Each structure stands twice: as structure tokens, then as C-alpha cells.
Amino acid sequence: MKSHPKIIDRIISALEPHHTICVVGHIRPDGDCIGSQVGLAMALRDQGKEVTVWNEDSVPKKLAFLDPDRLVQRPQKDRKFDCVIATDAASFERLGKVGACIGNRTQFINIDHHASNTRYADLNWVSAKEASTGELIFKLLQAAKWPITPAIADCLFTAVSTDTGSFQFPSTRPSTYNVAGELVKRGANLAQICDEVYQSFPLSRVRLLQHVYNHFRLVHNNQIAYFWLKKADFDRTGASTDDSEGLIDHIRAIEPVVVACVFEEMGPESTRISLRSKSAKINVNEIAAQFGGGGHIAAAGARPAGKPLSVQRRVIQAIKKALDAAR
Ligand SMILES: [Mn+2]
């Protein structure tokens, strides 16, 4: 076994005297965020800590099985914690409304795998080579010798699996499989995880997917694919915003497409963009950064302000520029 980085030991000793701990994550949480938050919270609770788990948004329906005790709650004002731990959140802003509720704390710890992480806490463990924050939480638990129960293994396996696109993204490393193997050994319920996360979708999401196939656009010699999700599309299909998760993969998978982009209407002057790249030469983290966002080389996002068509024009232009520069 390779020795782990010193920062893990610093985090473990920092946590020891703390009793009240709040585990926070990013807005619109995904499998890595919820799996890391809940998995870490369960482990801390097993150590006798008093643990609160906050997210601005609720747990996506398909991930609800990871949190049967409903640990994940909306943030509340006027609470005080010995320690706040953020997982999978690249910046303080990504915590959304949670950020305003965690000011009264002794220590702030940041555990994340985004290259764009802004190191906003007192103790920052940012390891961009890991494919998921779930892997970092696994390493933390292992180094601390805290038991990994089957419920924790479910959380962390889901984190690793979702952030690697089921071990398909190039971010997947040999160690990713090793961690996944260890989690299966500790009782991760593969059948249930695959069924809940990958093999069951509400009808509303299928209707949204129908919309995507009917309305996606291809530009720049079919190298860029994009579609819009307007509030009206959610209303018409009955879909919730977490139903839009993963829709981008359907246009990313089109053979000539190099960069896929989704524009989601958040408000009249606010758009959420998601970007995926299939080429190692196109770093969508850099493109997202031009619009105040960030993420990873192959997957990133931002929330630019401005009128929808102006945002679309600027984003597509930035993608074209990146494609032309990589030729
Ligand atoms: Mn992640």
C-alpha cells in the first residue's frame, strides 16, 4: 500500500477534537457530491460526532436510496459548528445558499478533485488526479481506520461510478478500479446501485430526452452539438431539474461531435451551461472559465449572465475558437 499524502493526517488530527461537524456540498448535487457527503457523514456519525449535512438543493430522486435517514437537509441560519467540511465543491460560490449559513465555525476543510478548486478553506485537500471526490473520502476513511459499512460503501461506490461515467471517462485510473473493488468487498450493493442510478428513469425524463432528440443542433462541421432546456420544456414534460442530468451524454455520443453543450434557462438573464469534450486537445474547463465557471478537462460548467441568445453566441464562439486552435 502506498503511503497517503500528509494532508490526510492533518485532516484526521484536525477532526479529532471537533464534535459538531457540518458536511456541505455543491448546488445541483450529483452522485459524487451526494455519495461523498452522505458517506463521510455516516462515517463521522459512527465515530460519535454530531453531524449535519447541508445542500441548497434536495437529493436527486435517483440517489435518494443512499440517504434513507434523510441526513441531507436545507441550510439553516444561526447554527454553530466546530468544523465544516465541503466535499466536491470547486469554489465557495458553488455551495450556493449554504455558504451564508456556515460562517460560525472553528475550522473549514475542503476535500475536492476539481483542478479549478479555489482553495477557499483553512485546510484544502485538492487532488485533481482522482476521478472522483468519493475516492478521496475512501482514502480518508481508510487512513483514519474508520469502518466502511455497506451503507458507506454504497455511497462511495456511487460517487466513483457516476463521476467516471461507469469507469469509462479517461479520468479513470487503475487506482479507481482498486477503490471500487475495495468498496464492493465492503458490501457495496452493485445490483441496487446500477438499477437505481442507471436503469430506471421517470417518464418525465424520457419526455425530456425526446425533446433533446427533436431539438438538438449541430454546428461547425458537426463538431459541436447543443440543445436548450427552457423552463417551458420542464413544465410541459413534468420533468424536474435533476431529470436533466446526463442528457448531454446523448449528444456527446454522436460520432463527429467533439464538444457537446447544454444551455439551461435559469432565469430571464441567467443560463446554466454544461460542457463535455471528447478530445484531449479541447479543455472545456478553460472554456467554462471564460464564463466564470470551471470543472475538469472533459466536463465543466458555468452560469453566465446575459440574454439567452447572446450567451449562446458567445459560448459557441468560444468552443469554435478552441476547436480551430486545436486543429
Ligand atoms: Mn466530482
Question: What distinguishing features does this structure have?
Answer:
327 residues, alpha/beta, inorganic pyrophosphatase (n-terminal core), Diaminopimelate Epimerase, Chain A, domain 1, 6-stranded parallel sheet, binds manganese (II) ion
Largest sheet: 6 strands, parallel
Output the radius of gyration: 20 Å
CATH topology of the largest domain: inorganic pyrophosphatase (n-terminal core)
- For CATH, the homologous superfamily of the largest domain is named as inorganic pyrophosphatase (n-terminal core)
Number of strands: 12
Number of domains: 2
CATH class of the largest domain: Alpha Beta
State the share of residues found in helices, binned by percent.
25-40%
Share of β-strand residues: 15-25%
Bound molecules: manganese (II) ion
Structure description:
This protein is 38% helix and 19% strand. The chain has 327 residues and is α/β, with parallel strands linked by helices. The protein has 2 domains: 6-198, Alpha-Beta Complex (inorganic pyrophosphatase (n-terminal core)); 203-326, Diaminopimelate Epimerase, Chain A, domain 1. The protein is globular and about 55 Å long. Bound molecules: manganese (II) ion. Manganese (II) ion (MN) is lined by residues 32, 88, 113, 132-133, 163.
Secondary structure elements and their pairing?
Blueprint: H1 6-15, E1 20-24, H2 31-46, E2 50-54, E3 72-73, E4 81-87, E5 105-112, E6 123-126, H3 133-144, H4 150-163, H5 174-185, H6 190-198, H7 203-215, E7 217-219, E8 224-229, H8 231-237, H9 248-252, E9 259-267, E10 270-277, H10 284-289, E11 294-295, E12 299-302, H11 308-326
Parallel strand pairs: 1-2, 1-4, 2-3, 4-5, 5-6, 8-9
Antiparallel strand pairs: 7-8, 9-10, 10-12, 11-12
